[in-house]
Specification:
The structure is a single chain. It contains 5 helices and 10 strands, in the order H-H-E-E-E-E-E-E-E-H-E-E-H-E-H. The protein has 197 residues and is an alpha+beta fold. The termini are far apart. It is extended and about 70 Å long. A 4-stranded mixed β-sheet has the order 2-4-3-5, with no helix packed on it.
Length: 197
């Protein structure tokens, strides 16, 4: 028996107090779940000024990549959320400025981080193939791609993982060199949806 099987029996009224007692004594509760905070982890690519052993996460609102100017926002009981230095979420009126901490990228550390790119182009399949080849040729990792057409124009948002700001800028430059393609970095998919409506 395992915990899932026992809970299924309990839910269908097939378990009684004696079977619960036996189950608990059997040690079949399965592995204990690790406690922690989603997306927070030990820092590998950044250094937090004057602090160590803090967990970090890269903010989804601005998706910083190595080379971007960055700032840390202390999240009570969790760690530090890394933002682009001028991210409006890190500087919103409800944020106590004392929660902001200096952070810097560690030289030599290579970690691929996600960033959104928005593309607009005429709705041709061969353009889409060229875009995918360009992403692949840049050694960026394609994580997600969303397409929609509106009045003859295709709007595509791609989430790619890049190692640094230079790789991202080279990729955007190559995408903009494709015929009829306009590419730019965006903060999040919610912003992308707003631009195409």
């Amino acid at each position: 028996k395992n915990l899932e099987n026992y809970l299924t029996k309990l839910g269908f009224g097939q378990a009684n107090v004696q079977s619960l007692h036996n189950f608990l004594l059997s040690g079949n509760l399965g592995q204990k779940k690790k406690l922690g905070f989603p997306n927070f982890r030990k820092p590998t690519g950044v250094r937090i000024a004057g602090m160590s052993n803090l967990m970090v996460r890269y903010a989804n609102c601005c998706n910083p990549v190595k080379g971007d100017p960055i700032i840390g926002l202390m999240i009570q009981g969790k760690g530090v959320s890394i933002h682009i230095a001028d991210c409006t979420n890190a500087h919103s009126p409800g944020i106590n400025p004392e929660r902001l901490v200096e952070v810097e990228w560690i030289k030599g550390e290579q970690e691929s981080l996600p960033v959104w790119i928005q593309l607009n182009f005429e709705g041709e399949i061969k353009t889409q193939r060229s875009i995918l080849k360009t992403i692949q040729g840049s050694k960026a990792i394609l994580v997600e791609s969303n397409l929609r057409m509106q009045r003859g124009t295709t709007f595509q948002e791609v989430l790619v993982k890049v190692k640094n700001h230079d790789q991202l800028n080279r990729l955007i430059g190559k995408l903009n060199n494709l015929s009829s393609v306009v590419a730019e970095r965006k903060l999040s998919p919610s912003e992308l949806l707003a631009h195409s409506s």
